[in-house]
Amino acid sequence: MVGLLLPFTGVRNKTLCHIHGPTWFSWVDPDSDKTSDGEPPKMKIPSQGTCHRGGDTEPCRYCEEAGQFETKYDDGREIPLIETWQNHNRGGQNSSVMEELDLRGLCKDYFKITPSDYGNEMIAGDGISKGTVNTWLKEIAQKAEIGYERGLTEHSDFTEMVPDVYAHDMRGTFVMQLIRNNMQRTKLIKYTGHDHVSSLQPYEERVSQETDAREFLDHI
Ligand SMILES: [Zn+2]
After folding, report:
1. Which of 41, 178, 168, 156 is nearest to 106 (CA)?
2. What's the DSSP call for residue 61?
3. Which residue among 73, 144, 152, 163 sits deepest, i.e. has the most Cβ atoms within 10 Å of its Cβ?
């Protein structure tokens, strides 16, 4: 769940630790696809909201202001949950393949998506720590053999060297995926929660290295 939510919702680590099923998803009926707005199911990240980490509504150590969860830049947003995605690592150069990935169904099964539903209210029941997220991600990266560009590093939770990747790297993956698929910059930041389009520049420079002569010919 963690390994899919990070790159396909682009949430920050602290936000992931606070996902609260009964109030963050847009379903109104756990037995149907009905959502509160008639749109595809979404994860609605509140800019401010009650902190439920630890199984209660007391402040957790990530939430300072009166126990309230807050996003970094007051950037509440709604991320539609995918069922398919464009895999740019397949399909040959300058091409991609549409692949199924039912994050929507996984969220519905894993989380308690309405107050009357069954399931986990938060990841692992009552939320996890940022350190746990990064440890799990390193395990995933090890198995998936990703992160070699960043190299390997020592980590106290592992006996061997592990990929030097963090949750925030997956946020970068999310941003670059939207850039590769040509989403307008002003729309894109509504999904990433960036303050200004100028924050996208490092990602755009990375994606620009992927272009080639054939793409130039398509655009001239
Ligand atoms: Zn909290």
Report:
1. 41
2. T
3. 163
Measure 64 CA to ligand 1 centroid, in angstroms: 8
The whole-number pLDDT of residue 23 equals: 94
**pTM for this model (two decimals):** 0.91
The alpha carbon of 32 and the centre of ligand 1 are apart by a number of angstroms equal to 30
Domains and CATH numbers, the chain: 2-213 (1.10.443)
Token duo for residue 157: 């939770």
For the segment 97-109, what is each residue's pLDDT rounded down to a tens digit? 999 999 999 999 9
Expressed in angstroms and rounded, the spacing between residue 166 Cα and the centre of ligand 1 is 20
Q: Cβ(10)–Cβ(167) under 8 Å?
A: no
Compute, in angstroms, the gap from residue 27 CA to the centroid of ligand 1: 23
Beta-carbon-side half-sphere exposure of residue 40 (alpha carbons within 13 Å): 11
Tell me the longest C-alpha to C-alpha distance in the chain.
58
